[in-house]
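tool=predict chain=A
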Amino acid sequence: MMVSMDSAMTGQVISHFRLLDKLGEGGMGEVYRAEDTLLRRIVALKFLTSSNASERSMQARFLREAQAGAGLDHPNICPVYGFEQIGERSFIVMAFVDGAPLSRRMHEGITLREAVEWTIGIGEGLKHAHDYGIVHRDIKAANILISKSGIPRITDFGLAKIQDRSRLTVPGSVMGTISCMAPEQLMAEDADRRTDIWAWGVLFYEMLTGCRPFDRGSVEKTMRAILSEQAPPLNSFEPLLPSDLNWMLQKAMSKSRSERYQHADDFITDLRVARKRLKPEHENLALRPASSGGAPTRSKTLRSASRLPGGLGWPMAITAVLLFGVLVALFVYMLR
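tool=predict ok
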């Protein structure tokens, strides 16, 4: 039986799964919300796209994704229930997360408290994967799902490196999202847990500022920035962001792996300390919505948080009030 992947799939029954609607599509697969008619639950089914289904390398990577996810059991990782094949088409059976990708939540706008909480949760999931010898290698906003209860879940282990397994990527090749890659990935070196820590730091930076720190609009410029430039400091976007977040990000995104956080636990510990230090006025600070890319620029949206509705900063407003008071006093004095 050859399964056709198009809009007509909705409503069809494949094995014991009834496809309800299409949730999304990426370069590798298409995801549908489905009803498991046997176990009577809602799940998510991920199919290889038609263009990838005939390639053996993509089939092997797809199976590797299912194996990586199936071997992990953690609240911050999307569970994999199974892997099935109908005719020439394979699909992964996953938990359905009732929520939205982090990329969409960032576009809509999030708070500082949410950014810190979700970054900690993502780190907890990465720590669990690393403990089992799995390096994700493609941590980015599109691969994080945020449930309606606010729990982040890592998904899409299609590029994962699994300890003691044969490699699927060709030595010297570069695969993944360029603007999220660590320097060693660009140099086609072996990835390890510190490679994920870099991408994790890039994602946190993007949450705080609305843009990726090394995205320069073109592949060549972005790669050059990753290898030789420093990320603009957070206070160039928003002075109200806590300063300790800046040095934490600098450490997470150090060009040298030996100078980064060596374990996810270390970054998580610092994030938790930063969370405790957040002042009430900082927790609800509205962060800049995620942009579509390009070089980082200072955010007028964020700066407005420290301005009055009329556009005057607080120092200028206070000065204006004092001058007005002096003028009133002089006027009263002259009337006498």
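The longest helix spans residues 314-335. Confidence is low (pLDDT under 50) at residues 1-5, 298-321.
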